[in-house]
Amino acid sequence: xxxxxxxxxxxxxxxxxxxGLALSTPPxxxxxxxxxxDPDLAVVMSDLHVGKPWAEQKFKTDRSYDYIDPTVRRLVxxxxxxxxxxxxVFILGDVSVCFGEERDYEIAKEILxxxxxxxxxxxATAGNHDRRVPMAATLxxxxxxxxxxxxxxxxxxxxxxxxxxxxxxxxxxxxxxxNSAGRGGCELGAAQAKWLEDFLAGTTRPALVCAHxxxxxxxxxxxxxxxxxxxxxxxGHNHSWQENILFSSYARKTMIRMVGLPxxxxxxxxxxxxxxxxxxxxxxxxxxxxxxxxxxxxxEERLPLWDCLVKERHGRKVSFPFEKKI
Length: 326
Ligand SMILES: [Fe+2]
Known about the structure:
By secondary structure, the chain is α/β, with parallel strands linked by helices. It is about 25% helix and about 25% strand. The chain has eight helices and 14 strands. The strands form three sheets. The protein has a six-stranded mixed beta sheet. Strands 4-5-8-9-11-10 form a six-stranded mixed beta sheet. A two-stranded antiparallel ribbon has the order 6-7. The longest helix has 16 residues, at about 100-115. Fe (ii) ion (FE2) binds near residues 47, 94, 127 and 237.
């Protein structure tokens, strides 16, 4: 089981304020009131890894992930306690704990539905621990209509820019699964790559491109840098807040930011990111809720460094300017 972080709620709220975010629990009299939803505000989350108890999973090991679902519930409550709610929540894959079983998505639906009930639109894509058929069957309209057959690609037109979600899951053959498999690889595929190329060639709006895997692992890092409208790239998969700069060559000054997101509940950085759009840029603020390796550690083994990481990283803000010089 995960041990509770010594990082207090007061410190958490202080970090939220540092990120320029207003987060508070509404007083009881306002709990049922309709709160403001800001179309220029969004939450981006990844690597939820929720699911049925590990002992009931298709493949069993000695691992236990029973702490994940409560952790994700806690973070969903944090989002719902924002004074101004985001218009969208974008999910960058790995919704399932491991094997993409239908029950995992049913639990995800139950945990995330309060967001939808609050008026927030959810848009999801797949990660390497997901399976498209049960994911689409269960999450329904959270999977936006895709311009690429068989993929969960989508474009969400926000007031100031387009949010592009790519589907980087390469599914494995279920018949070949074993305890060490059940996890797909990564690829865009020819059809999605062609669609992306055509879309970027035809758009005049700024675009923030997102996928479960990094631009490097999909082989699109130079394309992202060279596309005049792509202002940045977000990914999940590594369960860590990671800041990188993509550039096409030493001879060119054109570059963009690539940022990796925390996990919502599994390990390492635990949290999500809050995205705010301005006329000339997008800002992304890190909400760091915890840090741990709960499977391998007991309370006594919890490192003081982890609490330092939470304090240092919470409220970290990065910008993605729309203007590029190509
Ligand atoms: Fe993951």
